[in-house]
Specification:
15 helices; 41% helix; alpha/beta; Aldehyde Dehydrogenase, Chain A, domain 2; 470 residues; Aldehyde Dehydrogenase, Chain A, domain 1
């Protein structure tokens, strides 16, 4: 049975009520939030509803059902016999002050869930909104305050880059949560290291979709193209490359061609990203790749950009590395699964790897080899919205779990609480020789060893000590 300490129980109860009110206000403000995300990051209404508001509201409701149990204390069993008279528990307590440095690509969902987890765990939260989505996130944080968080419980800084730099340089926090690029995440990690401040870094992914011979090529093509196109490809967990085995390659490409030809232009948020993607695509085509759409992009570096897939993409092309943040997919034919895994593992950023097969146990067998904390079988992106599922990067994709069970527990700290009986307890004095002999017998400790050398009677007692103890 899990229970919360009285003070923590009261705080969690208040915060769970707040989460319910927050969800209601988010739903009531759907039109306003959708208009703001369209204005600031070019997100159409249907994406805001399905990829922002629905996951956030579901997370609020999930926490209301499960947070108390997850944050509850638990008894520690299995104590050795010689710790008689003691009771042991693990309780949980808030971290204290948590800083959230927000990202812009999913400005409502990502910030909203991180805020819910930090607040439900009882922390005081400081948020630095993204400079690319200040109005959207500003309104979301206003709703959080309207739902019941006081200015002391929720502090909001300016939505500027300089405010983010000052936040860590001028204030002390017990935990920092950052979502964004690996380059910025590395700088934040260095800053946190100076004060030994723990952090959760959810950084960029450059992941693969592995299409096996027995996959449904039409399903794989449809789902992967949707993942590349959604949010204009500005999704950390979207695939950067499709590694397709020969047995499925021709059909996969034929299914992808009409989808690519119908791609709609989208505006990218980061300056220069469209130019970089176009350059990588041109280089891949010059090296032997071919455009799935058959449409050559204009030379203009300005947004908007059309989603693009390069078929027959050479494995050594820069596009395959996936070092871009936009709607571009490299489609690479591979002869063997081992070849696909080698190429996949050569790229050090993994968040969510998808495997396409009609034999699910094959994907499960691959799981340890993929290096990703999220493995999706016959789907991409959508399953990651499960409110109980956590996101955890590996290597250059960050560290620490966010969202779900892991994310909530990361916003609290475990406390080992022991209680010892005043009468039935271990005596604090050192044991007598007879008591020690009894303890040794009961513990199975033998006096002396058949393999130990006999002491030299000519040496003084202190000369017989092992060298490292003298």
């Amino acid at each position: 049975m899990t229970t919360l300490s009285p003070q923590f129980d009261h705080l969690v109860t208040q915060r769970l009520r707040w989460a319910g009110r927050f969800a209601d206000l988010v739903l009531a403000s759907a039109d306003e939030l959708a208009a703001l995300t369209d204005l600031e990051v070019g997100k159409p209404r249907y994406e805001t509803i399905t990829a922002e508001l629905m996951p956030l509201v579901s997370a609020c409701r999930w926490h209301r059902r499960h947070a108390r149990r997850l944050l509850g204390g638990r008894r520690l069993g299995g104590a050795p016999w010689w710790l008689w008279g003691q009771r042991h528990r693990i309780e949980r307590a808030p971290l204290g002050r948590v800083a959230i440095i927000a990202t812009w690509n999913y400005p409502i969902q990502l910030l909203g869930i991180q805020l819910v987890q930090a607040a439900v765990a009882g922390n005081h939260v400081t948020v630095k909104p993204s400079e690319h989505a200040p109005r959207t996130q500003g309104r979301l944080l206003e709703l959080a305050r309207e739902a019941g968080l006081s200015p002391e419980e929720l502090t909001v800084t300016e939505a500027t880059r300089s405010a983010g730099e000052a936040l860590l340089a001028e204030h002390d926090f017990d935990h920092v949560v950052f979502t964004g690029s690996t380059a910025v995440g590395r700088a934040i990690a260095q800053q946190c290291a100076r004060t030994l401040t723990p952090s959760t870094l959810e950084l960029s992914g450059r992941d693969s979709a592995i299409v096996l011979e027995d996959a449904d090529p039409a399903l794989a093509a449809r789902c992967l193209w949707n993942a590349v196109s959604t949010n204009a490809g500005q999704t950390c967990m979207a695939p950067r490359r499709a590694l397709v085995l020969r047995g499925a390659y021709a059909r996969f490409c034929s299914e992808l061609v009409p989808l690519a030809a119908s791609g709609q232009r989208r505006r990218l948020v980061l300056p220069g990203e469209a130019t970089r993607i176009r350059a990588q695509v041109r280089a891949a085509v010059a090296a032997g790749g071919r455009l799935a759409s058959g449409i050559v992009e204009e030379e203009s570096p300005e947004d908007p950009i059309r989603p693009v897939a390069v078929l027959d993409c050479p494995a050594d092309a820069e596009l395959v590395q996936g070092d871009h943040f936009g709607p571009a997919l490299a489609v690479v034919p591979v002869e063997t699964l081992e070849e696909a895994l080698e190429l996949h593992r050569s790229i050090p950023q993994h968040l969510a790897t998808s495997v396409w097969t009609r034999t699910p146990h094959r994907a499960r067998a691959l799981m340890p080899s993929l290096g990703s904390a999220t493995v999706l079988v016959n789907d991409v992106l959508v399953p990651t919205a499960h409110p109980a599922a956590s996101i955890r990067g590996t290597r250059e994709s960050g560290w620490g779990g966010s969202r779900g069970r892991e994310g909530l527990l990361a916003m609290s700290r475990p406390v080992h609480l022991s209680r010892t009986s005043a009468r039935l307890r271990i005596p604090p004095e050192p044991p007598s020789d007879s008591q020690l002999a009894m303890l040794e017998r009961m513990s199975g400790i033998s006096r002396g060893s058949a393999h130990a050398p006999a002491p030299d009677p000519t040496l003084r007692k202190h000369d017989q000590l092992p060298e490292h103890t003298q």
